[in-house]
Specification:
By secondary structure, the protein is mostly helical. It has one domain: TorD-like (Orthogonal Bundle), CATH 1.10.3480.10. The chain has a two-stranded antiparallel ribbon with strand order 1-2. Helix 1 packs antiparallel against helix 3.
């Protein structure tokens, strides 16, 4: 069974009940965005322990098992050659420094306009940036949260018509957000020559976004 788990977003209507659904090729896409959202949400002791033990690789491998398109999660190099403090510090420097690579606005000419567009996407689906997350709405982890949510909603839809509307929203978010800036994000992370675990995650995210975008476009008929 699978259920979405948001960390950078929250539902405006807190009375909505979350439901569990059987795992399938669509929940696999949701689960994959969930893993990437957690990875890029911020580094702490648990994040470091997972990087040292190979758990990030296991999490991604499990998430992608039921995907209906080809995607290689690869193997995250272990972070056992770096201390926890250095690991967390480098995460901050690479992803959250100046410029903040995890901020979509860093990769657009009009960051304020892009931020407003992202917020409109969230609000249309009854979501808002979580007050406790400390993340901006255009943070990479939050955008992954959004894709996790609307992909889950597709999987849980009671009709093909409704599922199709969620797929159209995913395609629109790809066209206007993820597919425009994630390639640049991955290139800039690689150029920073970070810890190998970070480079792996950025590279695999870019590969997954490209594969997922192509898959949705094909399902939607172009």
């Amino acid at each position: 069974m699978f259920i979405y788990s948001l960390s950078g977003l929250e539902l405006k209507d807190t009375g909505q009940q979350a439901v569990e659904i059987e795992e399938n090729e669509t929940t696999a896409r949701s689960a994959t965005y969930q893993v990437f959202g957690r990875f890029f949400g911020g580094a702490d002791g648990e994040h470091y322990d997972m990087a040292c033990s190979g758990q990030w690789t296991k999490e991604l491998e499990t998430a992608v098992e039921l995907l209906s398109f080809e995607f290689d999660p690869g193997t995250a190099p272990l972070a056992d050659g770096i201390t926890k403090d250095d690991y967390c510090s480098q995460f901050g420097q690479v992803f959250e420094g100046s410029p903040a690579l995890v901020s979509a606005g860093t990769h657009f000419d009009d960051p304020e306009g892009n931020l407003a567009e992202v917020v409109r996407f969230y609000e249309y689906f009854g979501l808002q940036a979580g007050d406790d997350s400390g993340r901006a709405p255009d943070h990479l982890g939050t955008e992954c949260d959004f894709m996790q949510f609307i992909t889950f909603k597709e999987a849980a839809s009671p009709s093909d018509r409704l599922a199709g509307s969620y797929r159209r929203a995913q395609l629109d978010f790809h066209d206007r957000q993820l597919s425009l800036w994630i390639p640049s994000f991955a290139e800039q992370v690689a150029a920073a020559d970070p810890a190998a675990t970070f480079a792996w995650a950025a590279d695999r995210l870019a590969a997954f976004v490209a594969a997922d975008h192509a898959y949705i476009r094909e399902v939607q008929g172009g």
